[in-house]
């Protein structure tokens, strides 16, 4: 008896319009090849099964699914992975990949953008490597790189540092720490926030950063109402009215020289 061929783990990017009022056509944000590959997958690992089904329904309108929505095998990452993340390696995702050992391809998706980048999923990719599974990233939007490219900041040396502290004092200290690193090394610092906290973070940045530091904010990337603004903090402060962010639009923040 020949050994059953293992399935692959596909990293399936999602459009960046999750939680937004308007949705962009999938074909505008993702290549047809990515959508066709996703349509052929029937086993999934995701953050939320409801939003995963909604995304699969959108895919089905472009590339017919290999199995009806009701027949798709969808597993959710555990709640603690959402709360604490899985980037440090504590979570063992190997049990979620059992179907791949039986020959089924598995798709990993997040709510928006590329799974395992600024979103949960790195534990799944790591587990796939440990099990000898091929890991195949599909082409699609990555908000961090889109924001960096549009910012005019250093794209040769940059770091994504996740979320800043919610406490005002701790957040201010972290902003100053990141600014010092950016100004000394030239390394662009990228970070994100939950959309309803974007306005508070932007205000803290404008108030805390030095006037010659460049601050870039990219909002609603890939959407029709996308905005990218990159200016010195002095210019941000001089803006009338004071800058705000749309609480419904996801944003990427970047600071540098």
Write the layout of secondary structure elements.
Elements: E1 9-11, H1 26-29, H2 32-39, E2 43-46, H3 49-60, E3 73-76, H4 79-84, H5 98-101, E4 106-108, H6 122-130, E5 135-137, H7 143-151, E6 158-163, H8 168-185, E7 188-192, H9 198-208, E8 214-219, E9 227-232, H10 233-238, E10 251-256
Parallel strand pairs: 1-4, 1-5, 2-3, 2-4, 6-7
Antiparallel strand pairs: 7-10, 8-9, 8-10
Describe this structure in words.
The structure is a single chain. It contains ten helices and ten strands. The chain starts with 8 loop residues before the first strand and ends with a strand. The model has no long low-confidence stretch (mean pLDDT 93). It has 257 residues and is an alpha/beta fold.
Estimate the strand proportion.
Answer: 15-25%
Beginning-to-end CA distance, first to last residue: 62 Å
Q: Biggest sheet: strands, sense, closure? A: 5 strands, parallel
- The neighbouring-strand order within the major sheet is 3-2-4-1-5
Uncertain spans: none
Share in helix: 25-40%
Principal-axes geometry comes out as: elongated
**Class computed from helices, strands and strand pairing:** alpha/beta
Based on CA atoms alone, the radius of gyration comes out at 20 Å
Rounded mean pLDDT score: 93
Helices and strands, in order, run as EHHEHEHHEHEHEHEHEEHE
Count of alpha and pi helical runs: 10
The total of beta strands comes to 10
């Amino acid at each position: 008896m020949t050994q059953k061929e293992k399935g692959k783990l596909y990293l399936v990017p999602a459009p960046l319009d999750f939680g937004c009022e308007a949705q962009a056509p999938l074909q505008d944000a993702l290549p047809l090849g990515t959508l066709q590959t996703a349509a052929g997958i029937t086993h999934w690992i995701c953050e939320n099964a409801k939003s995963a089904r909604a995304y699969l329904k959108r895919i089905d309108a472009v590339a017919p699914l290999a199995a009806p929505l009701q027949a798709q095998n969808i597993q959710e990452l555990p709640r603690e992975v959402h709360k604490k993340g899985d980037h440090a390696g504590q979570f063992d995702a190997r049990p979620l990949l059992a179907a791949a050992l039986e020959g089924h391809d598995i798709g990993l998706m997040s709510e928006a953008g590329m799974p395992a980048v600024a979103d949960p999923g790195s534990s799944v990719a790591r587990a796939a490597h440990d099990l000898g599974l091929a890991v195949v990233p599909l082409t699609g939007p990555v908000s961090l790189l889109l924001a960096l490219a549009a910012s005019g900041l250093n794209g040769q040396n940059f770091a994504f540092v996740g979320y800043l502290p919610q406490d005002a004092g701790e957040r201010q200290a972290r902003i100053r720490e990141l600014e010092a690193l950016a100004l000394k090394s030239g390394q662009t610092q990228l970070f994100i926030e939950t959309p309803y906290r974007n306005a508070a973070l932007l205000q803290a940045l404008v108030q805390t950063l030095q006037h010659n530091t460049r601050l870039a904010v990219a909002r609603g990337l890939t959407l029709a109402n996308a905005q990218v603004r990159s200016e010195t903090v002095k210019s941000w402060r001089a803006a009338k009215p004071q800058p705000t962010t749309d609480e419904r639009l996801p944003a990427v923040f970047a600071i540098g020289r």
